[in-house]
Amino acid sequence: MRVLGIETSCDETGLALYDSEHGLLSHALFSQIELHADYGGVVPELASRDHLRKLLPLIRQVMAEAKTSADEIDAIAYTAGPGLIGALMVGASVGSALAYGWGIPALGVHHMEGHLLAPMLEDEPPAFPFIALLVSGGHTQLVQVQGIGEYQLLGESLDDAAGEAFDKAAKMLDLDYPGGPHIAKLAERGRPGRFTFPRPMVDRPGLDFSFSGLKTYTLNTVAEHAQADGLPDDQTCADIAHAFQEAVVSTLAIKCRRALEQTGQKTLIIAGGVSANTRLREELETSLAKIGARVFYARHEFCTDNGAMIAYAGCQRLLAGQSDSTAVTVRARWPLDELPPLSLRD
Amino acid sequence: MPRILALDTSSDACSVALMDGERTLSRFELAAKSHTRRLLPMVDEVLAEAGWSLANLDALAFGRGPGSFTGLRIGLGVIQGLAFARDLPVVGVSTLDAMALGYYEAHPVFAQEGRPVLVALDARMQEVYWALLSWTGEPDWLRRLEAEAVSPPSEVAAQPGVQRLGSAFVAIGPGWHYPELATLTPEHRDLEVYPDALHMLPLAKRALANGEAVPAEQAQPVYLRDKISWKKRQRIRS
To answer: C or N: which end of chain B has fewer Cβ atoms within 10 Å?
Structure first.
């Protein structure tokens, strides 16, 4: 089965063609980062307008790159949520109408299920069951995964998502949006040990997260060392970035290890934008090796939003016979554990 | 005669219409917040009623704005998907023009008497999308006396072209709820007028004949409000 995947839940227009026999055939992404950078975050109206300009040219591009004609496409998978409602509607409208026009099935895919399954696109995919850390600008969740659609939430952030904390810390340090890669780059020059930031909620049992206290701590540290223009000197900024990143990384790693120990699982997958963070990957490799567990993640370009993960996730469900009617529904909020299992056993 | 399917989701209404020579088939529903759920099923219903598939069509038309930003994108998103799938040309029709045409067809007396209509949609943020149009009949249907624009209602009321009319015009559209427009004295006032795909068909046919159709990729909404005052961030250094 050959599936066209469409992702428009936030500020990236992602398209891909995935084939259940031949794997990923092509993928293309238009990132709106530059469009939103001046505003310090995503402006939903601008994002939606841009998706509508970019979608068809990108569909044409992935079809040309995969040398795939319309009659070779068997189904369309589009992101139906969670995300920015106006942005979701663009991909869902184009995707469902295209499927109707081609006379093929369409399926609305859960964005976080897409992320969760993205490591399956790699040469050495993880095997079920596993624990998943979904960590992005909108989510920080630990999920127990028995199979596709069999998800149990173990813990989540009670306030800011980890990616959101990176964005906010970046803004405090006068860095660009999105904050993750900029903090990581600045942190390379930071001196370990100059600052030690708190690791929120690690002393408490359970698998929930909280990043708002860390955000306040960062803000106070910046203010304490600020010069006349309101910003600390260059080296101090790097030291703060380092301390901030270490605090987030070690908090995430501690909870991941705890989740594996509590459930007796030996496999962790990390997915979502923050899973691209090199320090997080290093820390998890080291920390999990100590308990004989392994961590899997997607290649960098499939950690952030992309069409390939939507095509893949959609393909698995379409193969199991699932599809949606032409009465399209998109959802800004959509708990992952509301998804049906892959095979409906009733 | 070209076979055209038109749809519109620019307001709380959702409508689909199809033209086959003299025959028209249409659907119209007030479907606030459920456009994505209703639009494609309505397209399917109208095609089924005509005994057609998309393959029988010559062109697609859509309400290209002004109107609700999200609504415009749902309509154009569906149009882009359908047009791309079947390689059909696309025609964008002004929602304000369609409202005026629909009103004249329902009230031919105003067309006969040469009364202009001032169409106003609520653009929110204390502004209206508006245009002043008059009836010409076929082939062009309408003439624009004041081009479509987005303005505060007080500016619309103060337009010399509008003031000059005195009471010799008709006010239509939900934008007329603004109290600032109460200084105007139209001969007749009707706020319950919505854009309807049915009234886009003649305008689309005309545009198609004029060579105004474009490929799916080039079809875009007309938002009118393009400069939105999102606050740019203040940078400290660099």
So the answer is: C
Cis preceding linkage at A44, omega within 30? no
Task: Report the C-alpha gap between A270 and A285 in whole angstroms.
Answer: 11
Is the pLDDT at B86 greater than 80? The verdict is yes
Q: Is residue B19 located within the same domain as residue B83? A: yes
- Res A346 pLDDT > 70: no
**How confident is the model over A210-267, as pLDDT tens digits?**
999 999 999 999 999 999 999 999 999 999 999 999 999 999 999 999 999 999 999 9
Give the mean pLDDT of B31-58. Answer: 96
Residue B214 with chain A: CB contacts under 8 Å: none
The type of residue at A255 is K
**What is the widest separation between alpha-carbon atoms in chain B?**
66
Contact A24, A160 (CB under 8 A): no
User: Which residues in chain B (40-99) have CB-CB distances under 8 A to chain A?
Assistant: 40-41, 43-44, 54, 69-70, 73-74, 76-86
If you average pLDDT over residues A184-194, what whole number do you get?
97
Return the closest-CA partner of residue B220 out of B86, B62, B99, B96: B62
Mean pLDDT of B166-192: 97
Residue B228: predicted pLDDT: 65
Are both B90 and B104 inside the same structural domain? Answer: no
Give burial (CB, 10 Å; 0-12/13-18/19+) of A88: buried
Q: Residue A15, CB half-sphere, CA atoms under 13 Å: how many?
A: 21
**The domain that contains B211 carries what CATH number?**
3.30.420.40
> Which residues pair with residue A109 across a beta bridge?
A79
> Is the CB of A128 inside 8 Å of chain B's CB atoms?
no
* Residue B223 contacts A, CB cutoff 8 Å: yes
What is chain B's length?
A: 238
Q: Could you tell me if B14 and B123 lie in one domain?
A: no
Q: What is the mean pLDDT of residues A78-107?
A: 98
Number of structural domains in chain B: 2
For tokens 């502004």, the residue is B127
Show the domain range for B145: 96-190
- CB within 8 Å: B81 and A92: no
Residue B124 to chain A, least CA–CA distance (Å) = 15
Query: What pTM, to 2 d.p., does this model score?
Result: 0.96
